[in-house]
Amino acid sequence: MSPMLVKELRMGLKSPFFVWGLLGVQLLLALLSLMFAGRGSEDMGIVFWWCLAGPVCLLLPLRLSAALREEMGGNTMDTLVLTRLSGWRIVLGKWVATAALQVLMALTVLPYLILRYFAGGIDVVQEIAWLGLFLLLGVTSSAVLLGLSFLKYFLLRAAVLLAVLLPTFGMCTVSVFEIARQRYGIESLHDDIGTAGIWYCVVLLVWAIFFFLDLGASQLAPDSENRATPRRLAAMVMVPVATVLAVYSKENDIREAGGFVALGAALLTVVQAMSEQPAHLRPLVLPFARRGFFGRLAGRVLLPGWHTGLIYATLWILAAVGVMAVYVAYNGGRNPLSLRIEILIMATVCCGALGFFVFPIGLAGIFRKLAAWNFWRWLAATAIGAVVSGIVLALWVPFPSMGLMLLSMLWPGAAIVAPGMATEMAQEQMRLDWDRGYPSGWYEIRQGMVLELMPAVLSVALMSAVIWWVVALWFGRREFGKLRAVEREIAAVKEGEEPARL
Fold first, then answer.
1. Helices 2-14 and 16-35, interaxial angle, to 10°?
2. Pairwise CA distance, residues 465 & 350, whole Å
3. Are 283 and 234 in contact (CB under 8 A)?
4. Closest CA to 202 of 215, 185, 189
5. Cα separation, 429 vs 442, whole angstroms
């Protein structure tokens, strides 16, 4: 990382963007101190915090919105390869350099924070805590923009830029006005969610930073560099840690849904795994093959490729079932009918998730499109399933239960939205009953609708997901065969025999 970090720091410190931005912030804060010398002001607080949040959370992350695309399209990759830097070290060096510039920008405003303290009316400890939160928001935005800056088309990068910076701008705006009014909220936040809840949020943020940086590194890395294993292992560590922290949180929402939120975040790695091209190279397989049976078994889950992604996705669905079982055990004392409805909904969503991941592989295998498999083909296959399902649902509107079952059979991913559709049907039924003069509670109607529809939809979604999983696994048998051939070659060389020809 050192050569890349030094290069990026030198370029960043010499860039007019950083130099003039830093001088402008210092000049503005100096003028502000002269204008409000000796007294505190809400306007002074607003300008002060925007002088920090603007560069740290918006302007400096903006520099990274096309960083990897410039490296990939600017004929500089060959030079970087000669330095023997891995894709991960290149991306990490860029991100650490930008984070260092953000820290430097934040440190330069500390003297003015002390001046505001002597002017009176602020809590230094809580304002320093908010300074750290703004830094955390800034480095997270930088990681997301850097990790997705490999996108080829400008419109896609612009969409990512807006999707990241607009929410960041909104969060900064709300926070700045609250801080300027001395409504810090740090202590109340700790009282609401507790230490475990705070660590839960930190774990999710750290994992998100790693995931997006690793996603960018995988675009720069050669086929012989295994980026799939660290990414998948990080998700497998994050989910149980975050789930345990969620259970011990004070906030009921985090305690009840924290494990599912972490699991949903980890499913991003499943999408990425299902869109990877297999790479049966000796440097990738050797670390697993030399560890015997259990090493080879781990390779079936952690090696790059959509064929191992099938097994990886299956394990995550089983993990979701485990989280669901823990949830049921934890809430066993609640109303049995409500608990049964929640189990039906969660089980249907799990079946839909499995079908959602494996359906594109099965469809692409049927049309023989796996040779040039990538994320965009996975997305196109998913879109085809969604469009066909929408047409089917439109044709079967008069028969909602039959439409939902047929929908889940054609595209098993539709089972994810089936509970929401059942709720919409319950709301429509309540409106009809009210118009007819038979008012009844929405909750009871929803319970009846879910109990009527979900068992049949669950059965169909489970059957459809299993069928498509078997189809996808059938097309993956050839890739597993190639992996086994490489393992036999490694074993033969280890025993001093002639290596098998592939």
1. 60
2. 10
3. no
4. 189
5. 9
Query: 119 with 48: CB under 8 angstroms?
Result: no
* Residue partners of 458: CB distance under 8 A and separation at least 6: 344, 347, 348, 351, 415
| Nearby residues of 85 by Cβ (< 8 Å), 6 or more positions away | 1, 3, 4, 93
> Phi then psi for 293, rounded to 5 degrees?
-60, -45
For the segment 294-311, the average pLDDT, to the nearest whole number, is 91
Residue 405: which pLDDT band, with cuts at 50, 70 and 90?
low
Smallest Cα–Cα separation from 108: which of 166, 47, 185, 21? 21
Residue 467 to residue 471: CA distance in whole angstroms:
6
143 token code pair: 């990681």
* Rounded-to-integer distance, Cα 289 and Cα 81, Å: 28
Residue 149 DSSP one-character state: T
Residue 322 to residues 128, 236, 300, 333, 351, Cα–Cα distance (Å): 41, 14, 21, 19, 14
pLDDT digit string, tens, across residues 338-394? 777 777 778 888 888 888 888 889 888 888 888 788 888 888 888 887 777 777 666
Indicate the average pLDDT of the chain. 79
C-alpha 168/C-alpha 142 separation (Å) is 11
Give pTM, 2 decimals. 0.85
Q: What is the rounded CA–CA span in Å between residue 448 and residue 426?
A: 8
* Angstrom distance (rounded) from CA 153 to CA 466: 37
Domains of the chain: which residue ranges? 1-184, 317-494
222: CB partners within 8 A, 6+ apart: 87
Hey, which of 12-26, 76-90, 483-497 has the most confident mean pLDDT? 483-497
Place of tokens 């915090």: 49
At 128-150, the pLDDT tens digits run 888 888 999 999 999 999 989 88
For residue 335, which amino acid is it?
A: N
Per DSSP, 34 falls in state H
Structure tokens at 247: 């259970």
The answer to whether residues 399 and 343 touch, using CB atoms and an 8 Å cutoff, is no
Q: How far apart are the C-alpha atoms of 53 and 134, rounded to whole Å?
A: 6
Residue 191 contacts residue 184 (beta carbons within 8 Å): no
Query: Distance between CA atoms of 124 and 130, rounded to whole angstroms?
Result: 10
CA dist., res. 219 & res. 87, Å (int): 8
Do 472 and 361 contact (CB within 8 A), yes or no? yes
pLDDT at 416: 75
